[in-house]
């Protein structure tokens, strides 16, 4: 984060959101394009890269291991070292707030015979790394994490990595991707079995770079196999807009009366589009315009108009396809007519914060009626009436960008406004968020 001191802010009630806006590039795709570009021999060019702190942490790590990652005009240019060619970094890899950088890079390093230390901020240093340490140890990498299997952590990749077949015990695209990336420099076939499908950007992009990767479906499982010692070919990549960033504007425009907003260039990969489906089930008006493909991913412009929302029971099977969107969905539920029930969301407890506890406390502080259960929230909505907003209390964001942005949206539909303790974490994924919000509701 850029400044040392927390940066509190009161998000005031606002008028309708109107006009057109474009959200920044997809965070997941941005990380992967920098990592794979850094492993391809030759120049990869990327436009639309998310320039948030998380992706910049990935870029710095790839530079520290020998790649060139530079911006030239609107384009990022990456010169890779080749699969197997990563160099020993001279200092600890500083991951900031980014779980994706950490877990995917641990995978990459697991099959390179180098030693590296990973450090992160207070939020990242609480997050579980055992879920990647376990499979990557089977490949032959060695780890010395902090107590509890967390950062700071030291690892040494395998000199002769062993291909594994691994069934994911948690629905995690980060764990899947870590293993597939380790498989890139492992002789033979590495297999990941996914009982529940998660975002498939790694699979799409590995194929795009020329890796031999097969996906089969059997008995409800997705079986993904990658052939190792791959040679990656440099690519030209256009990163689509991030649906997880668009989510804040989809909910804001749905909730604020009179809104009619077009969010351009939103990635709608089915493994990411769960929120659109759930908001529509709640009665939202979201129209997909000019559906097309960008960078091998489905994309559309979304026209979102204000609509009265109704509470629903959210199907837990949709959770992986909207895992980062729950904080803002909870805000939508707080303004809907009737009760919204969510469950099966244990994974939200190990994100940048415990998002169930953080959002239950935040919404209660803003005057919403919310009950926290073991694995979800139950919210009684106001039926469209504005929330009270915060009184003397600030919302604690726990270094979590999505709590900050979700509660900023709550501020728009409150009487007193919502004051949050720190806006700095927003820069991890969406540096222009506040400016775009002000412009849309001006
Ligand atoms: C991500 C996967 C998800 C998501 C995170 C980004 C990715 O995490 O929450 O923001 O880019 O692979 P999990 O895989 O841990 O669910």
UniProtKB/TrEMBL annotation:
Its EC number is 2.5.1.19. Monomer. The lineage of its organism: Bacteria, Pseudomonadati, Pseudomonadota, Alphaproteobacteria, Sphingomonadales. Belongs to the EPSP synthase family. Keywords: Amino-acid biosynthesis, Aromatic amino acid biosynthesis, Cytoplasm, Lyase, Schiff base, Transferase. HAMAP family: EPSP_synth. PROSITE patterns: DHDPS_1 (PS00665), EPSP_SYNTHASE_1 (PS00104), EPSP_SYNTHASE_2 (PS00885). The keyword Cytoplasm applies. Phosphoenolpyruvate binds at residues 27, 99, 127, 174, 355, 402. Residues 13-435 form the Enolpyruvate transferase domain. It comes from the Bacteria. GO terms for biological process: amino acid biosynthetic process; aromatic amino acid family biosynthetic process; chorismate biosynthetic process. It comes from Tsuneonella litorea. GO terms for molecular function: 3-phosphoshikimate 1-carboxyvinyltransferase activity; lyase activity. Catalyzes the transfer of the enolpyruvyl moiety of phosphoenolpyruvate (PEP) to the 5-hydroxyl of shikimate-3-phosphate (S3P) to produce enolpyruvyl shikimate-3-phosphate and inorganic phosphate. The gene is aroA. It holds the Pfam family EPSP_synthase. The active site is at residue 324. One of its GO terms (cellular component) is cytoplasm. It catalyses: 3-phosphoshikimate + phosphoenolpyruvate = 5-O-(1-carboxyvinyl)-3-phosphoshikimate + phosphate. It is found in: Cytoplasm. Pathway: Metabolic intermediate biosynthesis; chorismate biosynthesis; chorismate from D-erythrose 4-phosphate and phosphoenolpyruvate: step 6/7. This is 3-phosphoshikimate 1-carboxyvinyltransferase. PANTHER family: AROM/DEHYDROQUINATE SYNTHASE, PENTAFUNCTIONAL AROM POLYPEPTIDE. 3-phosphoshikimate binds at residues 27-28, 32, 172, 174, 324, 351. NCBIfam families: aroA.
